[in-house]
Design goal:
The protein is of the alpha+beta class. Helix content is 49%, strand content 25%. It has a 4-stranded antiparallel beta sheet. Strands 2-7-4-5 form a 4-stranded antiparallel beta sheet. It holds the Pfam family cNMP_binding.
Length: 179
């Protein structure tokens, strides 16, 4: 988060709540409307959806990142996915009304938010293309190259679902990759 946004957050301290939650806390359930956005001070969070009874992870968030189902948060429509903590987490939690108040009164806030949404869109497009074009081995190699911290902080079953493979296949790929 850039310096001017951090100053805005401190200036509006009474508009958000700092919370601590245990691992596997559901922050937003698929099908519910997002009423809050979160900024991660400590910990990890994943976004996933129910795919015919299986959880499919599609994004991970860590310290210094914001997370919400922005489509739902902005429009009031039900979320297409669940947001859940990966580990114990310390978060800043803000309601839509208070978020909008800060956005409307802080120069540069909306531009920074637009950039964050644009970066998320790029991430989704890259993931989409990789799922279609690349082999599981290539997807794993891209993850190792682009986001190695995920391999250190995320349970393997979530990484496997993120890559679109089974945990057994991930294990085989990891073994070959390490040789």
């Amino acid at each position: 988060m850039n310096q001017s946004l951090l100053i805005a957050w401190e200036q509006y301290r009474d508009l958000y709540e700092e919370i601590s939650v245990p691992a596997r806390t559901i922050l937003l359930e698929e099908g519910k409307v997002a009423r809050y956005a979160y900024y991660i001070r400590e910990g990890g969070v994943r976004a996933w959806f129910n795919n015919k009874g299986k959880e499919t992870s599609f994004q991970f968030f860590f310290e210094g990142e914001g997370v919400s189902a922005m489509e739902s948060f902005r429009t009031g429509q039900p979320s297409m996915y669940t947001i859940e903590t990966l580990s114990a987490a310390r978060l800043l939690k803000i309601s839509k009304e208070n978020f909008d108040l800060i956005a409307d009164s802080t120069p540069g806030f909306k531009a920074a938010l637009e950039e964050a949404v644009f970066q998320r869109l790029l991430h989704y497009r890259k993931l989409f293309v990789c799922q279609i074009r690349d082999t599981p081995q290539e997807r794993y190699a891209t993850l190792v190259a682009d986001q190695p911290h995920i391999l250190q902080r995320v349970p393997l079953q979530y990484i496997a679902s993120y890559l679109g493979i089974t945990p057994v296949s991930l294990s085989r790929i990891r073994n070959k990759f390490q040789k």
